[in-house]
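Supplementary Methods S3. Input chains for the assembly prediction are listed below.
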Amino acid sequence: MQTVSSLMRRSANKYYVSIGSFIVAILLTIMPIPIWAEPYRPEWILLMVIYWSMSTPRLISIGSAWGIGLLVDVLRGALLGQHALGFALTAYISLRFHQRVRIYPLYQQALFIAMIVLPHMSVSLWVYGALGQDPKSWTYWSPALTSAIVWPWIVVLMRAVRRSTDLD
Amino acid sequence: MKPLFTFDPSTSSKLLILVILSVVIMTIDHRYQHLQIVRQSLGTAILPLQYLAHVPSAIGEWLADNLAQRTELIDSNETLREQALFNQAKLQRLALLERENARLRQLLDSPVQPSDEKVLIAEILSVDLHPFKQLISINKGSQHGAYQGQPVVGAKGIIGQVTEVFPFHSNALLISDPNHALLAENNRTNLRALLIGSGKADRVQIINVSISADVRVGDLFHTSGLDGLYPPGYPIAEVTTINNNPGEAFFQIEARPLVELDTIREVLLLWTEQPVTEETAAEKDADRQ
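Predicted structure tokens for the full assembly:
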């Protein structure tokens, strides 16, 4: 039997861990890296949104995903709402399919990640196109690939973090 | 029986509302200034994280500075001293020329008066170099007097302009951004042409130069001062390739920015004129009456 207080402590813990993971994701997004690697930077923040909406659907709603997207807009100097739209869409897709995808093996999950990062990038591309700023380069799509590559590591790492912070 | 895959149907309507909301605020953000306050507050809230992300590279620089060999330091000190002496000698000549220039302009009754420019050194917090966006974030904001459209220069030439000002930091668009354009002038022939970014930090394009114009590889382009943004006379880029497609009326010219835009650490903010604020506009109105 679990006491109410231990459940409450656990949900508070979860809250802190998710905030911490988003801060790390933001740092990874704005950290300076060599210029040749810049187009291949994975969509860390989006991956965190996907991770939390798949593992703990109660914790993250598409509303909060939208808010995080707004923060990314400010970080990237994009139009307000540009990434927010894609983030809400991605959260929606991952919430919709989380029960199915969660039991896939990691490499199949990675393929799924590549596929749900694409809608977000297409939305962003449409907005850039509408503003007349289309990237004109195939490297625009490379974050979808690198995000899929880092996904299994994120899952393994987060599993370890959750175990050590007594969340599971 | 309870269905196995449950999904709250209200989420779909929530998504629809958020999509509409996104489109609405994108439109407002693109056309009007009402959302500046949202951007400003979110940007300021994120600033500590930007400083935090800057820490590893700052530590690297600090270590490099502190672990340098003594002989290296003496060497670099020597070179810097020589350079300072050299620059001082050049500056003396410049001061003389400036005075002479001012006197000649007075004789000619020219409205253009050389003005003293205020500058401020800013450090780069983060760099966002994508094929479609070339943006840097610097640690000076409206509290330090930075304003939108302010020129940002490096030791060797123009870097870009401030596009977004937050209270304690600001974002600047590099000249290599595909959306950045400025009116440049050829140092050798005074030919004026538009210089636009290419999305690559080491390349800009000079467009609409007719094939009968006199342009050569190695020509230096500097700011013309006619775009109302950049002060005249600052070097920008050196021509690297000139292509002439038969059948086209214009050259395809590529140039390399003199400042290595991907390795800069510190930049200079220039105050070319008073930014037009409501106060100064009111003052001007008062003067007129």
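Chain A has a mean pLDDT of 86. The two ends of chain A are 15 Å apart (CA to CA).
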